[in-house]
Write a structure and sequence with these properties.
By secondary structure, this protein is α/β, with parallel strands linked by helices. Helix content is 30%, strand content 30%. The protein binds inosinic acid and magnesium ion.
Length: 209
């Protein structure tokens, strides 16, 4: 157990196991390779949450000798367990984006506000093409039509080209996803029930005194 682990008895159901994550990462990597043999894309990690998924994916792609560059961008929108509705695009670190194909690597698509904001930012930087690769997609009532349309580009939403799995509309932790920085290092994706969230809130109270 590390400093930001949540006790096992406070974690809820496993929605995606470690094994399933590994399987899906390999499947997505194969599709990415097929589509990008001669595009020399930039893989853009949306920090912090996507870091674990991004590192896995890059390792698989490097082993398969795909030629690509890596980049990182900090974006924040979540306040503990809900989207704040305000998305801040922070520091970008990576090669010049102008004229390049970018593959955005995200941990989860929830309200998709982050993605919309990021896509506008990349357009303003003059990228030539964008694709999205996400580990998880949260099935919210508001995104039903997008799902029916196969996550293709519609209503100002981008196309999600590579997706690991759909999950039901729960707050989750694990594989990079956190609640106030807790739960990121779980290897499977778990629901974080209200008791788990309350336990984390308690820990943070002690820190801020
Ligand atoms: P969106 O802008 O609402 O699509 O949310 C994007 C970001 O919010 C994701 O990249 C995550 O970092 C975070 N997020 C959304 N849902 C969850 C969740 O269930 N657990 C932890 N973080 C989440
Ligand atoms: Mg994220």
């Amino acid at each position: 157990m590390n400093a930001h682990s949540i006790p096992g008895e406070l974690l809820g159901e496993v929605l995606i196991s470690k094994q399933k994550i590994i399987e899906r990462e390999h499947t997505m990597a194969d599709l990415i390779i097929k589509d990008n043999l001669d595009t020399n894309p930039i893989f853009l990690c949306v920090k912090q949450g996507a870091k674990y998924f991004f590192d896995d994916l890059c390792k698989i792609l490097e082993n398969k000798e795909l030629i690509f560059d890596k980049a990182w961008i900090s974006i924040s929108s979540y306040e503990r367990n809900a989207s704040s509705g305000k998305v801040n695009v922070g520091e970008y670190s990576g090669p010049n984006l102008e004229g390049r194909k970018v593959i955005i690597v995200e941990d989860i698509i929830d309200t998709a506000l982050t993605l919309k904001k990021l896509i506008r930012y990349l357009e303003s930087e003059g990228v030539s093409e964008q694709d999205v690769c996400a580990l998880l997609f949260k099935k919210r009532p508001e995104n039903l039509f997008w799902r029916i349309l196969g996550l293709r580009s519609c209503f100002g939403l981008p196309r999600i080209r590579y997706l690991g799995a759909f999950i039901p509309n729960y707050f989750v932790v694990g594989k990079g996803l956190d609640y106030a920085d807790y739960g990121r290092t779980e290897e499977a994706v778990h629901i974080l029930p209200p008791e788990g969230q309350a336990w984390v809130d308690e820990q943070l109270k002690d820190v801020t005194i």
